[in-house]
Write a structure and sequence with these properties.
- There is one protein chain.
- The protein has about 500 residues and is an alpha+beta fold.
- It folds into 3 domains: about 160 residues, Rossmann fold (3-Layer(aba) Sandwich), CATH 3.40.50; about 70 residues, Sandwich (Immunoglobulin-like); about 210 residues, Porin (Beta Barrel).
- The strands form 5 sheets. The protein has an 8-stranded antiparallel beta barrel.
- Helix 2 packs parallel to helix 5.
- The chain is elongated, with a radius of gyration of 48 Å.
- The protein starts with a helix and ends with a strand.
Length: about 500
């Protein structure tokens, strides 16, 4: 008869068995291969290390391997591979090299010459790990030797050592010696031997050489490569290479079988490039224009001088304390001057130029019949200007092209009467005006051009309200406006770059 006492005994027994099983799972020989899981082993390293709890992993740091007979760069590469192999062992939480170096730099710890166990332990304490790995890689003749040791930071005791000698190229050290010492130091070498017996493996090669090999989404290295796997399990083999299509296939492998697989990868199809017509190259992008011009406005000047003398005849003094008896115009010059412009070309048809110019006109004997004791004043016109022009050249010949332009500018007119080398006062006029014209350029050289142009300027000046005696005299004489609109002919030297 099944009673309550029997039930309690059964339940108690079940809990005891579960507790015993749990206590054995991660005690003694840590991380034994669970036969119930499809765990893959390559050279003794479990792939599905994520099945083990993160809390069981031991925090370690890896010192740079001392280089004897090999370069520091080669030793650094071997150290990086050692970190990866130790991480893949699944029992270590490996500190990244950059993080380790950052902490040491912040503590101003000098790593050079740190080879003794005492110094290594000090590094472990600074970076805050439980254990630290140090070692060396040496070359004697044709033999490479890799040795490492696992040191407990708290006790400074060496807990484990591993050494591997290999003959041949340095590549064999990377692919064979480093994984071997990682297995030894992590305690997985014995488990590997138990599993091996006879070899069960994939022997993989690719065309082209150097493709990355993944088995069940775990990276194993660069082909050609031999990878030992768990038999009687379906494995997914993936081959990846830049510029080639990804290759993937499933394989069932039997115990003690070495399956040779040669994969010919297919290149990725390249998109067909569209034939886009090339834009014609511009002849130039920018340049400098030096322009000499002559304003043909003599009649305009004559008219303004006549107006001034007429006002003087009415009793108003403009530039002199005495009134002239008459006025003549024996020596009147056109406005002439120079202009500097920055050329900009958006394409072969449209261009812009922004320029500054200064122009001058002078004449004597504009009033006469002064008393003999007085000299005759010289009248000087100054005209600074700023202008912006749009240039259009729709028709081009090999060495010659005509153009037309339109623009606007700001001009200032300064009238100065000079007597005995002394200024008698300077009223100032200003004007916003439009301009337009035509011209042609001769390009004998790639970077040099000669141009001739004709332009019409609209210059209707107004007297500026400036507080001085000369301006006040013009205001009193009611000379507040002056129209000097007219034509100009210019010759320019264009330097392109």
């Amino acid at each position: 008869m099944f009673n309550i006492t029997d039930l309690i005994v059964v339940v108690t027994s079940v809990f005891c068995l579960l507790a015993t099983a749990e206590s054995q799972e991660y005690s003694g020989e840590k991380y034994k291969l669970d036969a119930r899981k499809d765990t893959i082993w390559t050279k003794g390293i479990p792939v599905e290390y994520s099945d083990f709890p993160e809390a069981e992993k031991i925090a370690i740091a890896v010192m740079e391997l001392d280089a004897n007979g090999v370069s520091s760069a080669e030793a650094k590469a071997l150290t990086d591979r050692l970190r990866i192999e130790l991480f893949n062992a699944g029992i270590f939480q490996v500190m990244e090299r950059d993080k380790m170096n950052k902490i040491l730099d912040e503590m101003q710890f000098q790593m050079s010459g740190c080879t003794s166990d005492e110094c290594v332990v000090e590094v472990g304490k600074i970076v805050g790990v439980k254990k630290i790995i140090a070692g060396s890689v040496s070359k004697v003749g044709e033999i490479y030797s890799v040795s490492i040791r696992l040191i407990d930071v708290a006790t400074s005791r060496i807990e484990a050592t591993a050494i591997e000698d290999i003959e041949g190229a340095l590549g064999a050290v990377l692919t064979e010696a480093i994984p071997s010492v990682a297995r030894q130091i992590s305690g997985l070498e014995r488990q590997t031997k138990e599993l091996k017996g006879k070899k069960t493996a994939f022997k993989i090669s690719t065309e082209p050489y150097g493709a990355s090999v993944f088995i069940d989404d775990v990276y194993y290295g660069i082909a050609p490569i031999e990878v030992e796997v768990v038999p009687s399990v379906t494995h997914r083999l993936t081959i990846v290479n830049e510029g080639y299509e990804k290759w993937e296939h499933y394989y069932d492998i039997k115990k003690d079988q070495v399956l040779e697989i040669n994969v010919a990868l297919s290149k990725k199809s390249q998109p067909v490039a569209k034939n886009v017509p090339e834009k014609p190259k511009r002849r130039f992008k920018a340049g400098l224009k030096i322009r000499y011009s002559d304003f043909h406005i003599v009649d305009k000047i004559n008219n303004q001088v006549q107006i001034m003398n007429a006002k003087m005849a009415e009793g108003n003094e403009l530039f002199h304390r005495r009134q002239p008896g008459a006025y003549v115009f024996d020596e009147i010059n056109n406005f002439s001057g120079i202009e500097l412009s920055n050329l900009r070309q958006s394409d072969e048809v449209v261009g812009f130029d922004f320029g500054l110019g200064i122009y001058r006109s002078s004449f004597t004997q504009w009033i006469k019949n002064f008393d003999a004791t007085y000299s005759e004043p010289t009248l000087i016109f100054w005209m600074p200007s700023v202008n912006l022009n749009l240039r259009l050249a729709p028709i081009r010949f090999p060495l010659f092209y005509p153009f037309c332009n339109v623009g606007f500018g700001y001009d200032v007119l300064i009238i100065d009467a000079v007597e005995d080398n002394k200024s008698m006062g300077s009223p100032i006029f200003h004007s916003w005006g439009l301009m337009y014209g035509v011209g042609a350029e001769l390009r004998l050289f790639k970077f040099i051009g000669l141009a001739c142009d004709w332009n019409h300027y609209n210059m209707k000046y107004k007297l500026m309200n400036i507080e001085n005696k000369a301006t006040q005299r013009f205001k009193d004489a009611s000379i507040s406006q002056m129209d000097l609109s007219g034509n100009t002919v210019g010759l320019s030297l264009n330097l392109y770059y």
